[in-house]
Amino acid sequence: HRLPELLRQMPKAELHIHIEGSLEPELIFALAQRNGVAIPYRTVEELRSAYAFTNLQSFLDIYYAGASVLLTEQDFYDMAQAYFARAAKDHVVHTELFFDPQTHTARGVSMETVVNGLHRACVDAKAELGLSASLIMCFLRHLSEEDAFATLEQALPYRDRIIGIGLDSGEVGNPPEKFSRVFARCRELGFHLVAHAGEEGPPAYVWTALDVLKVERIDHGVQSSKDAALMRRLAQDRIPLTVCPLSNLKLCVFPDLASHNLRQLLDAGLAVTVNSDDPAYFGGYMNENFTQTFAATGLAAQHAYALARNSFEASFIDASEKRVFI
Ligand code: ADE
Ligand code: ZN
């Protein structure tokens, strides 16, 4: 059919992908072996069968365990390179990758190792695949603001390789305002700012991400539809939401894809984008997110064009380069 073909072929930007969430079970096993790291699963199939999540935290526990096989610069390079090759097949031409340095520095892996490996993969993706890629460093919100400040300090020598700062991990009980001081500092330093908000948490967290942290995009934000005033604010200010339908399905944010509110958000005039979040864990990269969601919710070609256009509009590509895509 023509619609799935349009969805697959259209150039698109991916703005919500945790690079550690692109680590496929096969690569987890290969890196575990290469690095002599023990993992509590005997086979790829046994690991994959553990991917049955009931909520965000049940996923995060397995996701952080999977990331424990990453030790060397080459590991980070290999992980990102595998993602870029896969994304290019889905006609992703620009991507802004999240990475979680605290997951690695807590295990004795240096910021230098993490950033160098990811950055080198970004440079090679442009040269070899024509895919432009940049890095957004996320603070883990279940940890303290003090810990986030220490992480920012470690990242400053690499600030020219990092375009933005994000906030991820367990949302409920860790509101954006817990990080108000460190985000203010990141703003002074000139970083772009984003935050996960309204994934499982209430609309109040979206408000404080906007008004206290002063973020430019909301990651997920699907709970915003519960608050009419918030919906008007997001529409009026064209605040992008980086929505991840298969993630929401696998983490039981919606009972099925047909119940997903992507269409409601689009129809309300919001700058919605579609993204894969943690594709190795949620059963689909970009094109699977598009084709499955369109099939389940009855979206049409005009929605596909709007979503592709939004993805470039919402990106942190320079305005002069953006015109090429929009
Ligand atoms: N880290 C990786 N994926 C995440 C998600 N969907 N929400 C919060 N933190 C994450
Ligand atoms: Zn995410």
TrEMBL record:
One of its GO terms (molecular function) is hydrolase activity. Zn(2+) binds at H16, H18, H196, D277. The record marks H220 as: Important for catalytic activity. Coiled coil: none annotated. It is an enzyme of class 3 (hydrolase). Keywords: Hydrolase, Metal-binding, Nucleotide metabolism, Zinc. It catalyses: adenine + H2O + H(+) = hypoxanthine + NH4(+). Its cofactor is Zn(2+). Pfam families: A_deaminase (PF00962). The active site is at E199. Substrate binds at D278. Its EC number is 3.5.4.2. InterPro entries: A_deaminase_dom, ADE, Ado/ade_deaminase, Metal_Hydrolase. Binds 1 zinc ion per subunit. Residues 11-326 form the Adenosine deaminase domain. Belongs to the metallo-dependent hydrolases superfamily. Adenosine and AMP deaminases family. Adenine deaminase type 2 subfamily. Catalyzes the hydrolytic deamination of adenine to hypoxanthine. Plays an important role in the purine salvage pathway and in nitrogen catabolism. This is Adenine deaminase.
